[in-house]
Amino acid sequence: MELNPIYEINKLQDQLPLSVVQDLHKRIADWLSSGGNYDDPYMFQQLRYAQLVARRVRNG
User: Fold this and answer.
1) If you placed Cys at 43, which of 2, 5, 52, 60 could pair as Cys (CB 3.0 to 4.6 Å)?
2) Helix axes 18-33, 5-12, angle to 10 degrees
3) What is the pLDDT at residue 1?
4) Going by C-beta distance under 8 Å and a sequence separation of 6 or more, which residues neighbour residue 13?
């Protein structure tokens, strides 16, 4: 099964500050509306950012 970065980011939402969630949603919407795909490298970059922020929130 192929990893879907949007799904993975959505699973992390409750671990992220609201401002980060809003920023990610805007970036994703802008990317997709400009012709990008959910499985483009840019989307995986956004997932890595969400994972990093979630990890930092958990670890204080």
Assistant:
1) 5
2) 160
3) 60
4) 21
